[in-house]
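Translate sequence into structure tokens.
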Amino acid sequence: MFSGSLVAIITPMLADGQVDYVSLKKLLNYQVDNGTDGLVIMGTTGEAATIPFSEQLTVMQFVLDEVQGRVKIIAGNGSNSTAEAIEKTKQLNELAIDGFLTVTPYYNKPTQAGMVAHFKAVAAATDKPVLLYNVPGRTGVDMLAETVATLSAVPNIVGIKEATGSLARLAELQKLCPNDFLLLSGDDASACEFLLQGGHGVISVTTNVAPLAMSQMIKAAVQQDRTTAEQIDQTLQGLHRDLFIESNPIPSKWALWRLGLINSDFARLPLTQLEPIHQSAIEQALHQANLKF
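Result follows.
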């Protein structure tokens, strides 16, 4: 369903802050043509926090029209308000998307019981598959493995993007959840080992910049070809690290601009553009990954 190489794609913007649809079309085809299996639209990396929902719907329909079913399309539908997440889910459900990525409610720090109630309510608003998303570094709350196991019993909650970077957490999830529950890494730096230890795929930031290498690494790791997977991943370690040298997606946008794939590295406030002091580090990471600019 959702496995392999999935990208948490950026939303390119012009210098006036408007969505750059010319660059978005180029990025979508760059991903599809280089082995990416699915696109996550309007997640954290897509700057959903600063894009009004009406505009998100426009972007989503543009993506669907351009991709034409060539890869899976997953929509970010998260909110720290359950009622808002339900309403977003109902509206997105009318589009020809393949499923949802639903982040844990951020800032208000619900209990584990609160998260169970939240995700059950959101999942009940759609007949499409739902992926949970646990990213404590962004949200301030950690959805424990026992909570995920409880939610795995909901028929259309089909997996999780687990972004703690903890391989011990992966082992807990494997022990507690059904074998067909999808375990996707949300941490590029540890993704290779996550897959070698039985994970099913990656929802990646690095894939924005290096889709072909990430696709090759992920295929090798899923096939338990440790030597090939680790060799490829070694060339990507600089990107895994330095694409987070400032808040995501600031470095990814700069890298894509440097590669000539987008017209501007603009991000909407409160995000800013990459500080000049960090540009050489990202250029070095691009060189290490054999990407030309």
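Note: The chain has one domain: 4-230.
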